[in-house]
Write a structure and sequence with these properties.
The complex is a heterotrimer of chains A (about 325), B (about 240) and C (about 290). Chain A is built from 15 helices and 2 strands. Chain A has about 325 residues and is mostly helical. In chain B, α7 links the parallel β7 and β8. By secondary structure, chain B is α/β, with parallel strands linked by helices. In chain B, α3 packs parallel to α6 and α4 runs antiparallel to α6. A 6-stranded mixed beta sheet of chain B has the order 6-7-8-3-9-10, sandwiched between helices. Chain B starts with a strand and ends with a helix. Classes of the chains: A mainly alpha (about 325), B alpha/beta (about 240), C mainly alpha (about 290). Chain A: It is found in: Cell membrane.
């Protein structure tokens, strides 16, 4: 489903649009109130993490249904290093990314070594995620199901140093992560490695026959995806101040992670963002509706029906559909 | 001239964007033996699958006894009396021989006569009768081929389409296979045979078509084609 | 001591039979349609709620309730298959996954709206009765649930062996292309299969309603449990699902006894990982792991 958006003729237009978009995002905290900032922070979080997941799925075709595992690894590593060892998140987050990369590489290595494919691979990711979630839930060191709590920031907190601050601060933290994530993804996907990944996705056997080292490249994409996700997890932990294994590492979270890129548009660069906007907005909207109507469960129902609608009528995703609508005069599909 | 049993006109077929059939036209007279030959990938199996309704043509039409059948469900086409002995046999490995045959005979028009038909098939293929309770997956290649033909017969076909029935069989079994196909023809059925084994085909065919890259490139009476130089060069290595 | 182990083993076998019924529903759907029903647990919970409602409103005990639940969920399965799932048969796996997640959300939403988030217990006399078998005391509800589940499984096996559509289902599972060749109408076969799959889940749910409290959030646990059994037994294999169900029932019982009960699922997941790596076709899955 990858469409290399070779906007030859539209390039100046594309660049202008993208710059305008990022400027708009940058200015949000100055233009909108705290409630909106909080919502958009969440959007950027899911967009960033969704983009990380998208690397594995959209570009190499590996379905991970247990991605929340890496969120948890990143979150707990960052939090524990900060709280129990006094290490700044500037070290903690990369550390979390490293651990996640190793765990991800390990799982990938096992999976590929034993030729676990298709739906079995997806189930393998679920199994590992659940296994570790239960492990973390029963690990006294990190508080188990009771949760792990970060101490409140001291009076003389310097947000840039401690990476903890107010709503605006976290907005920019996730904005930077999202931007960096996009740039890194774009570089990888449009470079040589991305080309090999596409080849593997299209026909792994043919690629290997041509000398592409598919095993290594597949382990690589999982490691990169895991590391990115873990960074998101670390930032998420700092923002929330508390971690619970069942929410942070559970199936629900894994599902939420993948909803955004699938609904937004797999394999595209902007799909995860559009999907994240959709997912977060629908969630907020349905929650509000449920609360005003006073009916428990209405929000879940509406959420489910909306997702159902999108997946039925916009199978490639919202972003590709929008692109097509906006450019009816384009020659190719 | 009697109305042709099957008439294919200007058929185009696509797999996604790739064109598999281009402007294919052929005519099969009722009761005749028609062969389609060509190399791998020429489109022979695609043609059979399109006639059988498993693939929808992107252009053209298929008439059976004057009625349009392109676009019909495969199950409906089976009910009309057009049945396949498909490439690779496609029998059901975990079902027994008897069950495989039973399913073949479960079409609406043949359901009532299942028992009798199965007895006939067993008489014709004693080896299958011996193995009636065996799982079809345990049969040898030749036996599976017999099962595939038997299963087809259970459906009381008027038009039988066979896709490479001799593929993968030892020479003596392949010969047996052609004998059976000949017998099917003599019993009054219309035969469409797709093969790579050119000599056997042409020797028995009333009419033959040669396909290449999804097109018909040569057609004529079986005997004529046997003598055709181009054909001999391309397919018989002479 | 031995008596305790026997009790745990017996209890495990009993609940395992019901687990097997759930797993059979999942495996038949996958075996025939190559579609993974990630909302299977939600269907089980629906059965539980049906069991609860039928008891509370009409004093219908678990066994007839299970039959009613089977019929209702059969209808639901046919409906969903014909209207929605049939459009997804060729689509990529992630699309199918999201479809079933959407189903799960919608069903959970409806459960919450109709029944609220609190657990619903069936307080039937049977919940407190026990049978004495060879010196062991066994929960009557468990024994009845297991017996009914077993009968249903045998009925299903007979259906698949002796009826035309049952054979058609087996044929389609064996060789979908071959089924098309012989004129089997896949639409009908898939609809019946979906119906059967969901009926198994619903019936199992109704059977356990006297044993566990009905709650929407049990659903993911049931889904994952069904997966573990189906993978271990072999995707598409009924025998595998049966044996797998019994195995998991007993294994979980012992794991809860010998290891920390909260960690008994960890054992199941560890087992799942091992099977996925070492023998993905499972115990009885003959087909090559896709």
């Amino acid at each position: 489903m990858v469409r290399r958006e070779r906007k030859r003729t539209g390039r100046p237009r594309g660049v202008v649009a993208a710059t305008a978009f990022f400027c708009a995002l940058f200015l949000v905290p100055h233009l909108l109130d705290d409630a909106w900032v909080a919502v958009l922070t969440l959007v950027l979080f899911f967009a960033f993490v969704g983009q990380a997941w998208n690397l594995m799925m959209g570009h190499v075709g590996l379905l991970s249904l247990g991605h929340a595992l890496f969120l948890g690894i990143g979150g707990y590593t960052t939090a524990v290093l900060l709280q129990d060892y006094g290490m700044t998140p500037w070290i903690g987050i990369p550390a979390g990314a490293l651990v996640a990369a190793m765990v991800g590489a390990g799982i990938a290595w096992l999976g590929f070594r034993f030729s676990v494919r298709g739906v079995y691979f997806a189930l393998l990711t679920i199994a590992f995620a659940e296994f570790f979630r239960i492990l973390f839930s029963n690990w006294p060191l990190i508080g188990g199901t009771g949760g792990y709590f970060l101490r409140v920031v001291p009076e003389d907190n310097v947000p840039l140093l401690s990476l903890r601050g107010g709503a605006d601060h976290f907005y920019y933290l996730f904005f930077v992560l999202f931007l960096v994530g996009l740039i890194v993804s774009a570089r990888l996907v449009r470079g040589r490695i991305g080309m090999f990944w596409s080849a593997i996705r299209e026909d792994e056997d043919a690629a290997r026959a041509l000398g592409v080292r598919s095993f290594r490249l597949k382990v690589l994409v999982v490691a990169v995806s895991a590391a990115m996700t873990a960074c998101g997890g670390g930032a998420f932990a700092l923002m929330n101040g508390s971690l619970f294994p069942n929410t942070l590492m559970g199936m629900q979270m894994s599902i939420q992670i993948i909803l955004a890129p699938i609904i937004g548009g797999l394999g595209t660069l902007f799909g995860p963002f559009v999907g994240a906007v959709f997912v977060v907005l629908v969630l907020e909207f349905s929650r509000d509706l449920g609360q005003t109507a006073g009916v428990y469960g209405l929000s879940t129902l509406i959420y489910g029906l909306t997702v159902l609608g999108v997946i039925l009528y916009m199978p490639e995703g919202i972003w590709p559909r929008l692109v097509r609508l906006a450019q009816p005069l384009r020659r190719d599909r | 001239m009697s109305r042709p049993a099957l008439q294919v006109s200007a058929l185009d077929g696509h797999y996604g964007d790739a064109q598999a059939l281009a402007g294919v036209s052929l005519t099969i007279e009722a009761g005749s033996f028609v062969s389609v030959i060509g190399a791998n990938g020429a489109g022979k199996t695609t043609l059979i699958r399109t006639i059988a309704g498993m693939l929808k043509p992107t252009r053209g039409e298929i008439l059976y006894r004057g009625r349009r059948i392109d676009g019909l469900d495969p199950a409906d086409i089976c009910e009309l009396g057009i049945l396949q002995v498909p490439e690779g046999r496609l029998i059901f490995p975990s079902l027994t021989v008897a069950e495989n045959l039973d399913i073949g005979g479960s079409l609406r028009r043949t359901r009532a006569r299942r028992r009798q038909n199965m007895a006939d098939v067993f008489e014709m293929f004693p080896r299958l009768a011996e193995r009636r309770r065996q799982k079809a997956g345990t049969l040898s290649g030749g036996e599976q081929q017999m099962l595939a033909i038997g299963r087809c017969l259970m459906g009381e076909p008027d038009l039988v389409m066979l896709d490479e029935p001799s593929l993968g069989l030892a020479p003596n079994l392949a010969d047996e296979m052609f004998e059976i196909v000949g017998w099917l023809h003599r019993e009054g059925r219309t035969i469409l045979l797709v093969e790579q084994n050119v000599e056997e085909c042409l020797a028995r065919s009333d009419r033959a078509y040669v396909m290449e890259n999804g097109r018909i490139v040569l057609e004529g009476r079986g005997a004529e084609l046997m003598a055709d130089d181009r054909l001999r060069a391309a397919y018989l290595g002479l | 001591m031995v008596e305790l182990y026997l009790k745990v083993a017996a209890g495990g076998l009993l609940i395992g039979t019901v687990y097997a019924l759930i797993a059979i529903g999942l495996t038949i759907i996958f075996g025939v349609m190559r579609v993974v029903n990630f909302a299977h647990g939600e269907m089980v919970v629906m059965g539980m709620y049906l069991g609860y409602a039928l008891w509370t409103l009409f004093a219908i005990p678990a066994i007839p309730a299970a039959l009613i639940a089977a019929v209702v969920l059969f209808g639901l399965g046919v409906f969903l298959q014909v209207t929605v799932v049939s459009r997804f048969v060729g689509r990529p796996q992630h699309s199918q996954f999201i479809l079933f997640i959407a189903f799960a959300l919608v069903i959970t939403g409806l459960h919450l709206m109709l029944m609220g988030p609190d657990a619903r217990s069936v307080m039937a006399p049977i919940s407190f009765q026990t049978y004495s078998v060879g010196g062991l005391r066994l929960d009557a509800a468990r024994v009845q649930a297991a017996a009914t589940a077993l009968v249903m499984i045998l009925a299903l096996v007979a259906f698949l062996r002796f009826t035309f559509i049952g054979r058609a289902i087996r044929a389609a599972a064996d060789n979908p292309l071959g089924a098309e060749v012989v004129g089997i109408r896949s639409g009908r076969v898939y609809a019946v299969t979906a119906g059967i799959g969901l009926a198994c889940a619903g019936a199992a749910g109704a059977l356990v309603s006297p044993l566990f409290d009905a709650q929407p959030f049990l659903a993911p646990e049931f889904t994952l449990l069904a997966f573990i059994i189906v993978i271990i037994g072999g995707l598409g294999s009924l025998t595998g699902a049966l044996i797998g169900g019994l195995l998991i029932g007993v294994a979980e019982g012992f794991a809860a006894l010998l290891i920390n009960p909260a960690m008994k699922s960890m054992f199941s997941y560890g087992l799942l990982i091992a099977v996925l790596l070492l023998r993905p076709a499972g115990l009885f899955g003959g087909r090559e792991a896709r």
